[in-house]
Design goal:
The protein has 1 helix and no strands. The protein has 70 residues and is an all-alpha fold.
């Protein structure tokens, strides 16, 4: 699959550094906290992907995202 990453949102500096290193991405594409992003500066795009914070599912976190509620 071929794609062109326009930007990404990550407010944790260590997660940003890890993501950039693993995916060979320029840290300048990070717009930080999505709640503080200026939507007028977002370039045109045709697809957006998102995900829940991995801490909710990680053994390093509290595993709150993996709980089943019935």
């Amino acid at each position: 699959m071929n794609y062109n990453l326009k930007l990404f949102c990550e407010f944790d500096k260590f997660a940003e550094q890890s993501y950039c290193a693993v995916h060979d991405v320029d840290e300048a594409l990070n717009i930080g906290d999505i709640t503080k992003a200026d939507e007028t500066k977002v370039p045109d795009f045709n697809t957006m992907f998102g995900g829940s914070p991995c801490q909710d599912f990680s053994i390093a976190g509290k595993l709150g995202g993996g709980e089943l509620v019935m």
